[in-house]
Specification:
CATH architecture of the largest domain: 3-Layer(aba) Sandwich
Radius of gyration: 63 Å
Protein name: Type VI secretion protein IcmF C-terminal
InterPro entries: T6SS_TssM-like (IPR053156)
Largest sheet: 7 strands, mixed
Shape: flat
Helix content: 40-55%
Number of domains: 6
Strand content: 5-15%
Number of strands: 23
CATH topology of the largest domain: Rossmann fold
CATH class of the largest domain: Alpha Beta
Structural class: alpha+beta
Keywords: Membrane, Transmembrane, Transmembrane helix
Length: about 1300
């Protein structure tokens, strides 16, 4: 179906010409309802306020005014009190007066100004009173003006209460009227030269601006302001100046041009010049009023002629003082008009100069109204009342007209619908017929409940026709079909009881036989609104709808609207009824059912499956009982029908039959079984033992309603007597509910977590370590113990539960097996809880630690630890409070406490005596002593124990370093050993000692840090002074021309030299010699860290020292095993090498042409010597030997200089030098002890042999083998 065309057509039909009366009536009715609602709301609100607001007594007025906080409705209440005094007839005229709001300080002359320039007192004498009794607000009623005087107390009050009170007063008054603000200033005060007066003016301008902003927000446009300077007669010359102006009819009135004035001028095309002049004058006046009296200087000539000399001089004096006076006023106006993006800038239009003795106030009246008397008289105060009365009358006529036309349209529409139904009756009763009935269309058209009924007879006629149509189209045809069915079917006993054999047939109330249905249909046809049949059917309309397969809506409509059955005609209907023969089910099945119930009575517990099977069987038997009741209803209908139907219809065949199943006790017992249940409270997640205990206590305390326990059901069936007790059945169900509840609770919580004692995880606050600093400052560790694992939780939840729950379980009426099963579950739960409890406090204890990054931080930590409120003590007290728990005699609590056995040392450690903890105090003494040692001054070296091998080293340490070194050296009186000794005395297990050793280890690490810093510094200096210079000198550097001196070598290598002395003083405590190698001595936590190249340099220096010095510290010569190589072969015409030699000082090794052997050569390096290598040659013609050699001048290292000159393919490996042909061959020997140790190397020197016959010869090599590379001694790691 297309929705858009349908909606378009409906709207077009609704707004057709035929419906205009309805639309007009609807609008009128709506208008009347709105007016009536507004009027009722106004009257109720007015009465409530009149009852709830009491006018304060005059004696309390001063007290009320003195209060800082005023009620928001206080000012509005004053206004209402003012209106109450005004006659009702003239209130509309008064509200049309021009409103002035006067602001000013106390003593500025506000009241005198109002008295002089208004006639409010005269109006009061004519029964037009003002309201001046309340100091919060004074209202003056003058001729065509209404003045509100705001007191200084409200002006200076900037509280929110005053703001609300002013808004509540002004919003209703000035929503459509523009007020004029009059600011009253004391003109005499402008003569002051006090510099603070300008600040005073600024504050007053800001306070007044705040009140003006409220008016601007209400009117949504700038507020016009007039400024009045009062008490001007106190300024010298003003009175004379004013009298002169008055005597010459010159007005003393100064005006400001506003933005609206400029717009009015700009609208005239010939006023451009005037607009420019006005704007310039306005800008000048607003910014600077010092020249506002300049226009009056043109009248000075006239004043000179008309005034006495003394008065003229005084007038001149006033005009000369005027610039100063009005300059201060300019400052006030500037602050008053300061731009503000959140509010509108007020427009200052005029200002006045007034005095108390002025003679012509009308010329200078600051309250001059713009509203004339004629305009006020034109106001009609009753105009609104006349309009309202006319509207109500019109609405009433419209209401009656709408009611008539609306009722008429409904009647026409119902006639049309009824004609269509009669012409084309629907197969089944539908909504169209239903909507024709009066009771229905009144619900669909709610206005009919309000409108009068103009067509009662027509509505009654339509209703009767509808009833005839229902009978004609639906009821009588159905009766014909049922009558035909009774003749076609084989004779069946009418009213036969239908046996319910399945669960689907429960309470169906079905009657399949046509004869029974015919009885029900006849009852419906003859039912009316008032007879017994109608009442019976109205209460059982659903049964009739199900039995007859008719619409329930039609049945209810027919019974409710049918007024008489006199017009019902059954002529031509063939209605006959056969004799009824009621039958019942075999009683043996019933007897088996009741016998089974008796067996269940004797069981201790009823399972859920047994109960559900019993309920199913009970439903079946109840269905049989209801079939009997339906038959009885058929008998009842037959009795009522005999009073309504014609006498030719015989209903005597339907009669009552007896049955054992009609016993009331059987039905009551079946209903009792059916209504019973085995349900128990739901096992709610997270409710735990608390929910279970509450449910068990409620189930134990539950008592059946009075009378139920005394019920018994006794009856006989098939010759056997049965008797059942309601109390026994309830006892069985109670036992079953409790057993099922316990079993489900255990099954639901198979995965136990130990937290079933707590219904909420937020009930107890967590125990937080270092809550004040979040575990990030010095005392680190932010362990958090769940609040459920605290002693508070145990005492408030666990212990009471373990006391009460077992007692309740013991009193439950359940089997011992169920009790034992639940007790085992409870034991397991408390054991799991105990293990988690211990784990929480184990983590809490072990997470406490200290982290002091500096000695100052350590001193602070130690000073905190000895305080009564130290974090350590807080942790230990929390451990004591939460782990030392007395289980009492409760076996469940004893199982819990067994999990806390590991915390037994807390009992010894925190044993309390007279409010103190002696053992913990001993630990505090150790901490205090350590703190004192850290803070002590450095002791002189002579006071140290001279037997201490490290005494000299300790003198170089700080107190913290000495504490750390004592720990490193494992000294008996080190603080680690002292604390451990104390811990062992208290029998604190090793795994729980770290918390007490933490401050000592912090001192150890900090002290070792200081030692590492000192060692690094000392080593750097030692390296630069003793070791590093060696690298750049010969023989440590073969390329260096500078030789190392004996003193430098002694300083770096001698046992008594600077290097080894410094080592002994600073580094020896942390190094040890193993296998002639120096290694790091390991201390606790592998500290301190030695300088990177310390051990390498130390081992090199040690080896060099062993070579150069003996055990007594005397110089040891360098000894090398040298073996000459064979001399060169004899060649023709060549000189013959007779021998070779290698000499170092007095030590010489010779080589001959014979088998060479190893010879020792000694190098006395401690004193200068010369070195040489060479050959001696012989010739055949000369017996004299010729010597050729390479010689090195005298020096301490001449031998190494000689080695440096070795050349050829066989050279030497030198420190920082090149290799020149050193080749290993065989084994060598250690020069320190002369034993074989290592390979040898061959050194080659090139020598030119002597010339023969003046001819040059080829070069010859002098070769020597030297064991153990001599240069290796001086190869020192860098």
């Amino acid at each position: 179906m297309d929705l858009l065309p349908w909606m378009t057509g409906s709207v077009r039909n609704f707004f057709s010409v035929d419906n205009w009366p309805y639309l007009l009536a609807a609008v009128a009715v709506l208008g009347v309802l709105i007016l009536a609602a507004l009027l009722v709301y106004y009257l109720i609100r007015k009465r409530r306020k009149a009852r709830g607001e009491n006018k304060p007594a005059e004696s309390d007025i001063g007290k009320t005014a003195a209060k800082k906080a005023i009620p928001p409705s206080s000012l509005a209440r004053i206004w209402k009190d003012f209106l109450k005094e005004i006659p009702w007839s003239i209130r509309p005229n008064i509200l049309a007066y021009e409103h002035f709001i006067v602001f000013g300080e106390a003593g500025s002359g506000k009241s005198a100004l109002i008295d002089n320039y208004t006639d409010w007192q005269g109006r009061a004498r004519q029964f037009y009173p003002s309201y001046t009794t309340n100091p919060l607000l004074q209202i003056y009623l003058g001729s065509k003006v209404l003045i509100q005087e705001i007191p200084a107390a409200l002006l200076d009050d900037t509280s929110e209460d005053v703001r609300r009170a002013l808004l509540k007063l002004w919003k209703p008054l000035f929503r459509r009227h523009d007020p004029t603000v009059v600011i009253v200033l004391n003109g005499a005060e402008f003569q002051t030269d006090d510099p603070e007066y300008l600040e005073y003016l600024k504050q007053k301008a800001q306070m007044i601006r705040g009140k003006i902003n409220l008016l601007g927000n209400i009117r949504k446009k700038p507020v016009k302001v007039r400024i009045v300077l009062t008490l001007m007669d106190q300024i010298e010359g003003f009175s004379e100046f004013s009298q002169f102006l008055t005597g010459n009819d010159i007005p003393l009135k100064l005006e400001f041009r506003s933005k609206t004035d400029f717009q009015d001028i700009s609208e005239r095309p010939d006023a451009l010049e005037e607009k420019k002049i006005a704007e310039d004058r306005s800008k000048t006046n607003i910014k600077d009023l010092s020249g506002c009296l300049d226009p009056y200087e043109e009248h000075l000539t006239r004043a000179l002629l008309s005034l006495p000399a003394d008065q003229y001089l005084k007038a001149i004096t006033f005009m000369r003082q005027g610039p100063k006076l009005f300059q201060d006023l300019s400052v006030f106006i500037k602050f008053l008009q300061n731009p503000d993006p959140l509010s509108l800038e007020p427009e200052v239009t005029q200002f006045y100069l007034t005095s108390q003795v002025e003679g012509e106030p009308s010329v200078l009246n600051p309250f001059a109204p713009s509203l004339t008397a004629r305009e006020i008289k034109k106001i009609d105060p009753y105009f609104k009342h006349r309009v309202a009365a006319a509207a109500i009358g019109f609405a009433g006529l419209a209401f009656l007209g709408a009611a008539y036309f609306h009722g008429r349209s409904l009647v026409v529409e119902r006639y049309r619908t009824l004609a269509r139904v009669e012409a084309f009756p629907p197969a089944r009763y539908d909504q169209k017929i239903h909507e024709i009935l009066p009771s229905v269309y009144v619900q669909q058209h709610p206005l009919m409940n309000v409108f009068p009924d103009f067509f009662p007879e027509i509505n009654r006629e339509i209703t009767n026709r509808c009833m005839d149509n229902i009978r004609r189209f639906y009821l009588l045809p159905g009766l014909d079909r049922l009558c035909a069915a009774t003749t076609v079917k084989s004779p069946v006993a009418a009213g036969r009881i239908v046996t319910i054999r399945s669960i689907d047939q429960q309470y169906r109330g079905t009657i399949d036989e046509a004869q029974d249905k015919a009885v029900y249909l006849l009852a419906l046809i003859y039912a009316t609104r008032n007879n017994e049949l109608g009442k019976l059917i109205r209460h059982n309309s659903a049964s009739w709808s199900q039995i007859l397969n008719l619409s329930k809506e039609m049945i209810e409509d027919y019974v409710h609207n049918n007024e008489s059955s006199a017009g019902v005609s059954l002529a031509g209907k063939r209605i006959s009824f056969s004799p009824s023969q009621g039958t019942v089910e075999d009683p043996r099945r019933w007897m088996v059912y009741f016998t089974e119930i008796g067996r269940l009575y004797r069981q201790p517990v009823l399972s859920r499956s047994e109960f559900e099977r019993l309920q199913k069987e009970t439903d079946q038997f109840l269905g049989m009982i209801q079939q009997l009741e339906l038959y009885d209803l058929t008998v009842r209908l037959a009795e009522l029908l005999r009073k309504e139907i014609p006498s030719d219809i015989n209903l005597e065949m339907i009669s009552h039959k007896e049955s054992e199943l009609r016993q009331e006790a059987i039905k009551n017992f079946l209903n009792f079984i059916k209504n019973s249940n085995i349900s128990y409270p739901e096992v709610v997640e997270r409710s735990g033992f608390t929910g279970l205990l509450e449910n068990l206590k409620a189930m134990l305390a539950f008592k059946e309603p009075q009378g139920v326990s005394n019920l018994s059901f006794s009856f006989s069936l098939g010759g056997e007597a049965f008797s059942f007790s309601a109390q026994q059945w309830q006892d069985l169900l109670n036992r079953s509910r409790i057993s099922l509840l316990l079993r489900e609770f255990v099954n639901r919580h198979k995965n136990q977590d130990g937290l079933l004692f707590f219904p909420s995880d937020q009930e107890f606050g967590d125990l937080v370590m270092n809550a004040s600093n979040d575990g990030r400052f010095l005392f680190i560790g932010h362990a958090r113990v769940d609040g459920r694992f605290t002693k508070e939780a145990i005492e408030k939840r666990v212990r009471p539960m373990l006391t009460e729950l077992p007692d309740v379980i013991a009193r439950l009426p359940v089997s011992p097996e169920d009790k034992s099963y639940f007790s085992n579950f409870l034991f397991k739960e408390i054991d799991i809880y105990g293990r988690r409890y211990a784990q929480s406090f184990r983590k809490y204890y072990l997470e406490f630690d200290i982290k002091a990054g500096s000695p100052a931080a350590l001193r602070f930590v130690l000073s905190q630890m000895v305080l009564p409120s130290s974090p350590l003590r807080e942790v230990l007290v929390n451990m004591m409070d939460n782990t030392l728990i007395d289980p009492g005699k409760n076996e469940y609590m004893q199982a819990f406490v067994r999990n806390l056995a590991e915390f037994e040392f807390i009992r010894r450690l925190m044993g309390e005596q007279k409010g103190t903890f002696p053992e913990l105090d001993r630990y505090k003494v150790l901490i205090e002593q350590m703190l004192a040692d850290i803070q002590e001054q450095q002791e002189p070296a002579e006071k140290k124990d001279r037997e201490d091998p490290y005494a000299q080293f300790k003198t170089r340490l700080s107190p913290l370093g000495r504490i750390s070194f004592a720990i490193f050296n494992n000294e008996k009186d080190s603080y680690v050993n002292l604390v451990k000794l104390w811990l062992d005395s208290v029998a604190v297990p090793r795994g729980w000692q770290d918390i007490f050793l933490a401050p000592v280890w912090q001192a150890y690490f900090l002290g070792m840090g200081e030692i590492e810093t000192e060692m690094a510094k000392t080593w750097k200096e030692l390296w630069q002074t003793d070791i590093q210079p060696l690298y750049s000198k010969f023989p440590f550097s073969s390329s260096s021309g500078e030789e190392v001196s004996v003193d430098e070598l002694r300083n770096a290598t001698h046992p008594a030299g600077h290097f080894w002395q410094t080592y002994q003083a600073m580094f020896s405590p942390f190094c040890k010699e193993e296998g002639r190698r120096w290694k790091k001595k390991n201390g606790p936590y592998n500290v301190p860290k030695l300088p990177n190249n310390l051990l390498t340099a130390l081992n090199a220096a040690s080896q060099l020292s062993a070579v150069l010095w003996d055990k007594e510290g005397k110089e040891r010569p360098l000894e090398f095993m040298v073996r000459p190589k064979p001399l060169p072969a004899v060649l023709p015409n060549e000189p013959t090498a007779a021998l070779s030699y290698l000499q170092a000082g007095e030590s010489v090794v010779f080589g001959f042409n014979q088998k060479p052997s190893w010879k020792k050569i000694k190098v006395n390096w401690q004193s200068p010597y010369w070195a040489a290598v060479g050959m001696e040659f012989t010739t055949r013609d000369k017996p004299v030997r010729i010597k050729r050699s390479i010689e090195i001048p005298s020096s301490n290292w001449a031998f190494y200089r000689l080695l440096q000159k070795a050349e050829g393919p066989q050279g030497a490996a030198r420190p920082n030098g090149s290799d020149k042909g050193i080749q290993p061959a065989g084994s060598g020997y250690n020069p320190a002890n002369g034993k074989k140790a290592g390979d040898f190397k061959t050194y080659s020197w090139v020598i030119r042999p002597p010339a023969i016959d003046g001819q040059g010869r080829s070069m010859m090599n002098v070769l020597f083998d030297i064991q153990n590379d001599p240069w290796a001694i001086f190869i020192v790691p860098r």
